[in-house]
């Protein structure tokens, strides 16, 4: 396997409840440190593919390798340390009472020592520009701010790969610009492998490569 290959999908198919295939014989490779957009119309299987890549769904056939590890039950715990996902609706992702509690959620589940957790919360809140809002509640934030909090929570887990599934689809132009700017920083400055799932061609065109799923 290539040293710089982070994700390899081979002959992947998936169907819900034995219905028509949502994905059929998909093959793709994503290199380390790249920003790749997966593009397609509604119903093309984009979000299904993202859920398969993080192990939320299991393929009907085919295989997925994440940083050289097969995505299966034997490796799922290790793989989830490598790859995170942020979904399209920021309201559905906000699990904390405040911004601070929301970023802390995943760290608390990992039993991170308190002092280290506080340091990580500050580090990643600052990175996404949300440090001044740590005491704010969800209803006090814009859509773009909520999405940045969700990204901070994922970053705090220090995974190498971040999937953004339609992360700008519910945002206004200002919020979309905020997220695109953040994606570029994460990719170019931190070397994160970024996968954006989208139906927006102008957004996708800013990434390093496009993968188009047909209906």
Give an account of the 3D structure:
The structure is a single chain. This protein is an alpha/beta fold and about 220 residues long. It folds into 2 domains: about 1-80 and about 160-215, P-loop containing nucleotide triphosphate hydrolases (Rossmann fold, 3-Layer(aba) Sandwich); about 90-160, no CATH class. The protein is built from 8 helices and 9 strands. It has helices spanning about 45-55, 75-80, 90-95, 100-110, 115-125, 145-155, 175-190, 200-205, and strands at about 5-15, 20-30, 35-40, 60-65, 70, 85, 160-165, 195-200, 210. The chain has a 5-stranded parallel β-sheet with strand order 6-7-8-3-9, with helices on both faces. It has a 4-stranded antiparallel β-sheet with strand order 2-1-4-5, with helices on one face. Strand 1 and strand 2 (about 20-30) form a beta hairpin. Helix 4 (about 100-110) runs parallel beside helix 6 (about 145-155) and helix 6 runs parallel beside helix 7. The radius of gyration is 17 Å and the shape is globular. The mean pLDDT is about 90.
Question: What is the CATH superfamily classification of the largest domain?
Answer: P-loop containing nucleotide triphosphate hydrolases
CATH class of the largest domain: Alpha Beta
Largest sheet: 5 strands, parallel
Q: What global shape is seen?
A: globular
On the 0-100 scale, what is the average pLDDT? 89
User: Strands of the largest sheet, in order across it?
Assistant: 6-7-8-3-9
Residues in β-strands, percent: 25-35%
The poorly predicted ranges are none
Termini gap: 30 Å
Structural class: alpha/beta
SSE pattern, N- to C-terminal: EEEHEEHEHHHHEHEHE
């Amino acid at each position: 396997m290539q040293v710089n290959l982070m994700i390899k999908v081979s002959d992947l198919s998936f169907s819900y409840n034995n219905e028509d295939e949502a994905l059929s014989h998909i093959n793709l490779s994503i290199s380390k440190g790249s920003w790749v957009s997966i593009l397609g119309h509604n119903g093309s299987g984009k979000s299904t593919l993202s859920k398969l890549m993080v192990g939320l769904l299991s393929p009907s056939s085919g295989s997925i390798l994440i940083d050289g590890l097969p995505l299966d039950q034997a490796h799922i715990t290790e793989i989830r340390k490598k790859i995170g996902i942020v979904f399209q609706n920021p309201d559905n992702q906000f699990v904390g009472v405040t911004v601070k509690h929301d970023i802390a959620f995943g760290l608390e589940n990992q039993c991170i020592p308190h002092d280290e957790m506080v340091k990580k919360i500050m580090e990643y809140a600052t990175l996404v520009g949300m440090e001044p809002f740590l005491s704010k509640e969800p209803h006090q934030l814009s859509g773009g701010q909520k999405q940045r909090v969700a990204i901070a929570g994922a970053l705090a887990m220090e995974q190498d790969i971040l999937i953004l599934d339609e992360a700008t689809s519910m945002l206004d132009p200002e919020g979309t610009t905020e997220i695109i700017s953040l994606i570029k920083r994460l990719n170019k400055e931190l070397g994160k492998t970024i996968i954006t799932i989208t139906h927006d061609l102008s957004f996708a065109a800013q990434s390093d490569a496009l993968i188009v799923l047909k209906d």
